[in-house]
Each structure stands twice: as structure tokens, then as C-alpha cells.
Amino acid sequence: MNEFWVLVTGSLVGITCGLTGVFLILRKMAMIADAISHTVLFGIVMAFIITQSLNGIWMMLGAGIAGVITAYLVQVLQSNGLQEDASIGVVFTTLFAVGVLLITLFAGNVHLDVEHVLMGEIAFVPWNTWTFMNLTMPKAVWMLLFVLLINILFLLGFYKEIKLSTFDPIFAMSIGLPLVFLHYAFMTLVSFTTVAAFDSVGAVLVVAMLIVPASTAYLLSKSIKRMIILSMLIGMLSAIGGYYFAKFLDASIAGMMATTAGGIFLLVFLFRPYEGLLMKKRKLVNMNNLTIKS
């Protein structure tokens, strides 16, 4: 049964991160995910200091606020002349450092450590359960299902607006779409997704699950809907395959999940039909041979 819940949790991480990651890739915001995955630590610690509770709802609320603050500060620095990568670096290192400092000062005696937040431990997930309506499941599963539902509802409700603002923001602004609201709402979703995955893959490795499956799907897709479906499937496959590889090698489960996602990306990058790197080189060699023969 423990193995079942580990697989369910990992699959939900892959599906949820795969769904959210699609628009991170399309909106060219991959590195902001790295920033948010670190700065949510600041939000989690602040939520604990204020509420003196490790309740998942408060943690998620604190993470969401931290994500919005991160996106806002990055935007402010960019608007005032600092380059995007430098803005992200300044914001996430500063807020992450403040989060670590607050843990040492105010949360040293509670189960809230930096290593757990960064690396996670999916093998322990089945032991921390919640019961709702006589249904008992791991806390991580409840949180991931909740966040997945929020992501789905948001995308269903604002799919056209998100799509238009992603590919043609100037036209979207001209017809009065609330671009600021959409941007910060999406950053909040990224924050929620990140904190929901803490118990399984941790804040650092969740970046891989947010970015790599969606990047792989991008290479294989000609439409957003296809990209979304493929990203979710690749995320789930990475989680399940990574678990069994880790079990076989007696290695880190979370690390192997991220490694599996990277391996799938590499295979697609090299061997995808017509446009893969090796396929292009093979086609070039064939063309050169034909030229020489002629």
C-alpha cells in the first residue's frame, strides 16, 4: 500500500507540474519557477510565525503570497532597468536567505527544516495522512488533488485569455484583457503547485518537474492542447519510471524522477522524427552523399 501511495503522489506531481509548466514555457518564464520554488520558503516560514501552525492551508496561502511578491519584485526591478535574469537572481536569493534566517530564529524547534523543503522525501508521504469525509489519504495527495483542481478550473475559466496574452500580449491589452491579474494569478498557481510538491520532490527538484516535461512536450507539439496532454503524460511517466529506477538502483526517488524526466527530454531532443538532432545530422549526411554521387 505504501508503494501505491508513493506512485499516486509522484504521478500527481508529474501531472500537476506538467499542466502548470506548459504556460511557463510558452510565456518564457521558466526561470521564474526556479525563483518561486525558493522564495516560497519565505512565505511558509512567515505563515508559521503568524499562525504558529503547520496546517497545509496556511502553508499554501503563505506560499501563494510569496510567489506574488516574487513576481512583483522581479517586475519592479525589470521596469527600472535591471536585466530579467539579474532581477530573478536578486529577488530569489534575497528572499530565500531571509526564509532560512527566519527558520533559524523562530522555527528551530519545529519540523520545518531547509533540507526537507529543498529535497523532499516521497518515501515518507504515506505516513502523514488526513481524513476527510471518512476517506483517509496522505496529506500530499490531498494537497496535490486540491491544487490540480484549482489549476484545471483556472485554465478552463481563462484558457482563451491566457492563450491570447501568451502569444499576443499587445493585442490582448488593446481589447482590455486584465493582463496584470492574469500574470499574478498564474504566479500564485505556480506557488501553490510548488508548495504542494514539497513533501514529494522538494522545492529544488520540483523545478525539473515544472520545466522538463513541458519542454519535452513543446518539442513534440504543434498545438497547446496537445502540448498540455503530452506534458502531463510525460510528467506522470517520469514519476512512475523514476520510482522503479530508484527502487532498482537503491537511489533517491525524487532525484531519479527528475533524472528520468531529463532522460526522456534527451531522447526526444535527439531522436524526434525529422527535427531531432541526430535525425537532422543523418539527413545532412544523406544529402551530402547524394551531392557527391551526382
UniProtKB/TrEMBL annotation:
GO terms for cellular component: ATP-binding cassette (ABC) transporter complex. Its main location: membrane. It is found in: Cell membrane. Keywords: Cell membrane, Membrane, Transmembrane, Transmembrane helix, Transport. It is a multi-pass membrane protein. SUPFAM superfamilies: ABC transporter involved in vitamin B12 uptake, BtuC (SSF81345). It comes from the Bacteria. The chain crosses the membrane at residues 6-25, 32-50, 56-74, 86-108, 140-159, 171-195, 201-220, 227-246, 252-274. Pfam families: ABC-3. GO terms for biological process: response to zinc ion; transmembrane transport. Belongs to the ABC-3 integral membrane protein family. PANTHER family: ABC-TRANSPORTER METAL-BINDING PROTEIN (PTHR30477), METAL TRANSPORT SYSTEM MEMBRANE PROTEIN CT_070-RELATED (PTHR30477:SF8). This is Iron ABC transporter.
